[in-house]
Amino acid sequence: MKQSRRATITLLVASIVTAIVVFLPLWWVFVSSLRPGNTYVNYTTPLSWLAFIPIGGDLTNYVSVFSGPFLIGLGNSFLVAGLTILLGLIVAVPAAYVLATIPFKGRGLVFSFIVIVSMIPFDAISIPLASLFQNWGLSDSYAGLILPALANGFAIFMLRQFFLGIPTELLDAAAVDGLGRFGTLWWIVLPSARPALIGASMMLFLSQWQAYLWPLLIGTSPERQLAPIALANLSTLFTVDMGQILAGSFVLSIIPMILLLLFQRQYTQSLSSTGIKG
């Protein structure tokens, strides 16, 4: 009994320490963003415990950063990420459903190809792909920002693994009742697949929310810049206002965390359903 209690306390302490280590850099960014201009360096050279205490700060940097192009970029990021989730699921759900429920020759080969391709870093193919998009007239457009993120192999993988766990008896009963494959997917499979859909949506969202190289290469105008590009543009050759940059960085970091906290249970369920299934 004592050993079990000791182990529980040890795990609790380890979890708290890990949480502090993970959260501390983000907290420092928040505290530093409350300090005007570059005055945050007064507490980092040498490092002082005051660097982590929001004393004498205000929201001036947030007011300034939201008064400029960053606000437009943030709206564009939400728009692009939202469309990517919607259109990405329209692509991923049928692909995963076919790979999970319809036997056909070469199904395993197709699935393996999708997984292997998804492991290739997008940055490795972004430069030649940007040239193709420019030739196709897709540069400086929302379509050019969204299209490369639609066929997300990890989203297809997650959904397929979830669909494999659906009892075949349920699918057979739907077929007996006269539901076609689309009807079975819409009325039987999708209502029970909410955790997997949320997990896939988070992957699609993060693929766009943290994108930097591709929006930079596609050459978007200020009206269609995403938030990371607008944030980087706050640093110029002559001025670098780290207060505003830190404020924008905190906003870009906290939004995915809020979404993850809101859908934590469903996201965890989606990850737990992606075990090895044939």
Automatic annotation (TrEMBL):
Give a GO biological-process term.
transmembrane transport
Keywords carried by this UniProt record: Cell membrane, Membrane, Sugar transport, Transmembrane, Transmembrane helix, Transport
Give the top-rank taxon of the lineage listed in the UniProt record for this protein. Answer: Bacteria
Q: Which InterPro entries match?
A: MetI-like, MetI-like_sf
Q: Transmembrane ranges?
A: 7-30, 78-102, 109-130, 142-163, 184-206, 245-263
Kindly indicate whether the keyword Cytoplasm belongs to this entry: no
Where does it localize? Cell membrane
Which GO cellular component terms, listed alphabetically, does the Swiss-Prot or TrEMBL entry include? Answer: plasma membrane
> Its topology with respect to the membrane?
Multi-pass membrane protein
**Limits of the ABC transmembrane type-1 domain:** 74-263
A Pfam short name: BPD_transp_1
| Family recorded in the similarity comment | Belongs to the binding-protein-dependent transport system permease family.
Record-given protein name: Multiple sugar transport system permease protein/putative chitobiose transport system permease protein
Q: What is the lineage of its organism?
A: Bacteria, Bacillati, Actinomycetota, Actinomycetes, Micrococcales
